[in-house]
Amino acid sequence: xxxxxxxxxxxxxxxxxxxxxxxxxxxxxxxxxxxxxxxxxxxxxxxxxxxxxxxxxxxxxxxxxxxxxxxxxxxxxxxxxxxxxxxxxxxxxxxxxxxxx
Length: 101
Prior knowledge:
This protein is mainly β and about 100 residues long. The protein has 1 helix and 8 strands, in the order H-E-E-E-E-E-E-E-E.
């Protein structure tokens, strides 16, 4: 019994603890399908194959912005209670025509 306890303590001390610093979600929509990866340590997000962007959060919502040539996009991601799923909303603003979509 003592031998088993010693081995289990050694194994638990050798194995590093796993801290989840990245949350990854798969977004499916009518047109696009892509991954969203949140890095909580760096406070960055990667959507699809894009460059990392900074995000901020309030309550259960995460927010970030991105831009293309003539459009600015505002993303809002609401995580579920257990963080297994969420809802992504995208709002775009065209800089030339001033139309919101």
